[in-house]
């Protein structure tokens, strides 16, 4: 395409390019059904492996979350009622030792 090319020149060049692309497309070899089936099976195996890996990762994350929750539950300070019950138990034990 040049600076002085007309619309007809550009349209002709576009038509030639389209025709060339169509010829190139038609010249491709036909699809081998067996190779296509093998590629499809390989892709399905990859997807299954990815899904399995993702499920394992999710299960591991859930286990870590449960472990963290259990650890947090152990670290929770006792409530006022629990502290009073422990104090009363110590007091009763001390009284029992004195008798």
Helix content: over 70%
Count the E strands.
0
State the order of secondary-structure elements, H for helix, E for strand: HHH
Major sheet details: none
State the end-to-end CA separation.
114 Å
Count every helix, treating DSSP H or I runs of 4 or more residues as helices. 3
Shape: elongated
- Structural class given helices, strands, pairing? mainly alpha
Q: Could you name the ranges where pLDDT drops below 50 across 5 or more consecutive residues?
A: none
Strand content: under 5%
Q: What's the rounded overall pLDDT mean?
A: 91
Output the radius of gyration: 39 Å
Write down the domain tally.
2
Describe the structure in your own words.
With 99 residues, the chain is mainly α. Helix content is 82%, strand content 0%. The chain folds into 2 domains: 1-29; 31-98. It starts with 6 loop residues before the first helix and ends with a helix.
List keywords for this structure.
99 residues, mainly alpha
Quick summary:
With 99 residues, the chain is mainly α. It folds into 2 domains: 29 residues; 68 residues. The protein contains 3 helices and no strands.
Secondary-structure blueprint of this entry?
Blueprint: H1 7-26, H2 33-74, H3 80-98
């Amino acid at each position: 395409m040049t600076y002085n090319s007309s619309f007809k020149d550009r349209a002709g060049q576009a038509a030639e390019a389209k025709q060339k692309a169509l010829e190139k497309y038609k010249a491709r070899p036909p699809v081998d059904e067996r190779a296509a089936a093998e590629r499809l099976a390989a892709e399905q195996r990859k997807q299954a492996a990815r899904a399995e890996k993702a499920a394992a990762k999710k299960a591991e994350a859930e286990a870590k979350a449960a472990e963290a929750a259990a650890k947090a539950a152990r670290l929770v300070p006792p409530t006022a009622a629990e502290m009073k019950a422990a104090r009363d138990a110590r007091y009763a034990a001390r009284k029992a030792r004195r008798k």
